[in-house]
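Milestone 3.1: sequence recovery, worked example.
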């Protein structure tokens, strides 16, 4: 199997599920329709770092939630697909749009709907509390649970493998 850093060095698009990856998976319902979600601020910073390095980020979520769309807008994530349980056609669409092969794409997922993507992409990652079936197909189980900076750790790994991390840190 190819080395994890060699896989990370090829990434030009990082796709991520939302619930259970960028959030802890909890949905908070109130008296008004819809629900709220809590996102980790370091994941947001990591998305901006990836974008600054020329790596696109896409949200592909099975749940159609306004909170996901709002977070994408706040971070400048142009490719936000909320309410798509069939995720593979979205991946194919993104690869065609950006002229990418599967090995140039990473995906972060935590549950069964993510399996078709995780089995195809060049860098498949999941949080430490992902479903066992997901962990079995991933190249890397990130050592934190969903909602606790999973994307941040994956982004750092990608940017370090591409020799871009010192440039990001140097901005501060």
């Amino acid at each position: 199997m190819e080395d994890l850093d060699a896989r990370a060095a090829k990434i030009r698009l990082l796709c991520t599920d939302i619930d259970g990856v960028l959030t802890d998976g909890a949905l908070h319902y109130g008296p008004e329709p819809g629900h709220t979600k809590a996102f980790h601020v370091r994941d947001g910073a990591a998305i901006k770092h990836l974008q600054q390095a020329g790596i696109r980020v896409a949200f592909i979520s099975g749940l159609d939630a306004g909170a996901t769309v709002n977070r994408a807008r706040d971070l400048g994530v142009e490719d936000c697909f909320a309410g798509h349980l069939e995720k593979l056609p979205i991946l194919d669409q993104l690869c065609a749009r950006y002229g990418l092969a599967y090995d140039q794409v990473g995906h972060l997922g935590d549950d069964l709907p993510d399996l078709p993507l995780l089995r195809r992409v060049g860098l498949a990652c999941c949080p430490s509390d992902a479903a066992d079936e997901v962990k079995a197909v991933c190249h890397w189980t990130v050592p934190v649970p969903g909602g606790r900076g999973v994307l941040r750790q994956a982004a750092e790994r990608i940017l370090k493998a591409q020799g871009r991390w010192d440039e990001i840190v140097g901005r501060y």
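Strands lie at 13-16, 28-29, 35-36, 56-61, 79-82, 105-108, 123-126, 140-141. The chain has one domain: 4-27+39-170.
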